[in-house]
Design a protein that fits this description.
38% of the residues lie in helices and 22% in strands. The protein is built from eight helices and ten strands. The chain has helices spanning 39-50, 80-92, 131-140, 148-152, 166-178, 183-205, 221-230, 244-253, and strands at residues 5-11, 15-22, 27-34, 59-64, 76-77, 96-101, 106-111, 117-123, 211-214, 235-237. A hairpin with a 4-residue loop joins strand 2 (15-22) and strand 3 (27-34). Helix 2 (80-92) packs across helix 8 (244-253). The chain binds adenosine-5'-diphosphate. Residues 12-15, 102-104, 131-132, 134-135, 145-146, 149, 215-217, 219-220, 242 line the site of adenosine-5'-diphosphate.
Length: 256
């Protein structure tokens, strides 16, 4: 039977991404959903409802991300590093350093001019360098995650946050706010502390310019701006930061 294309499924700890492409890599469908507790049911619904018009006998299915093992119908599973690399190299087509900051982990991936993996470093042990850190802060300030970056950048001043741990940073916030400090300056300082954590990951493996920002956290304007301020190098934000790995998975499916 002739294959019509490929389905890439990236189940992250925070978001569940699906991309369907045709044999020429054109995107036919893409969707970002919140990852549910019962992932198996969500996968079942995906095939029965969301992508039911794509006959799975005619599309290769590739899974990646933290929930990839749950996709029992997948023809193959790849790591997020492989899928990110594939998806971003398809977009950028140059040697680069990819910084992917997701909901519960962050990765720095060095890519050669041929799209090969040269080196990588990953943090999935501590929430302080991840999107979860920002989500906790948004909750603490009673703000939407989509607002906090803009608010942080709406002030010139900035508070120095010395705690490197999410829990201690929260105590520091309370202490600063109770001293009457402008909450926007605190927010900006918190963003800087995340950026500095990522910077030390980048420094640990060295940088090949340009630096490409990917993952949901690159939707946060303060992270992008402060990354530019802290790292004196060329920075590009991926066109589709949250679905890069799903696109990469789908592209990998075309060579099955
Ligand atoms: P994962 O693949 O690890 O499940 P994502 O790459 O989707 O996660 O990133 C999720 C993170 O992206 C959230 O923790 C949040 O910090 C950030 N995020 C998501 N949407 C937005 C938005 N609209 N504006 C700013 N940040 C966002």
């Amino acid at each position: 039977m002739q294959r019509l294309g490929s389905i890439g499924i990236d189940i992250g700890s925070t978001t569940f991404k699906t991309v369907v492409i045709d044999n020429n890599k054109n995107i036919l469908f893409s969707k970002i959903m919140t990852t549910e507790t019962f992932i198996e049911k969500q996968i079942e619904r995906l095939f029965k409802e969301e992508i039911k018009e794509f006959n799975t006998d005619k599309y290769t299915i590739i899974a990646t991300g933290y929930g990839k093992e749950m996709v029992t119908s997948a023809n193959r599973k790849y790591t997020e590093i492989t899928c990110h690399l594939k998806g971003l190299f398809n977009e950028i087509n140059t040697a680069c350093t990819i910084v992917d900051i997701g909901g519960q982990d962050s990765k720095v991936i060095k890519c050669s001019s041929k799209g090969e993996l040269l080196d990588f470093v990953m943090n999935d042990k501590c929430s302080a360098g991840t999107g979860r850190f920002l989500e906790n802060i948004a909750t603490r300030f009673n703000l939407e995650i989509s607002q906090i970056g803009e608010i942080a950048m709406s002030t010139v001043g900035e508070q120095n946050i010395s705690s490197t741990c999410t829990v201690f940073a929260e105590s520091e916030i309370i202490s600063l706010i109770s001293q009457g400090v402008d909450y926007r300056e605190v927010l900006k300082g918190l963003h800087t502390s995340l950026v500095r954590r990522i910077k030390s990951m980048i420094k640990s493996i060295g940088i090949i310019e340009p630096l490409i920002l990917s993952g949901g956290v690159s939707l946060n304007r303060a992270i992008v701006e402060l990354m530019k301020r802290e790292l004196d190098c060329k920075i590009i934000v991926s066109k589709n930061p949250q679905i890069t790995a799903a696109i990469g998975a789908a592209i990998l499916g075309l060579s099955e």
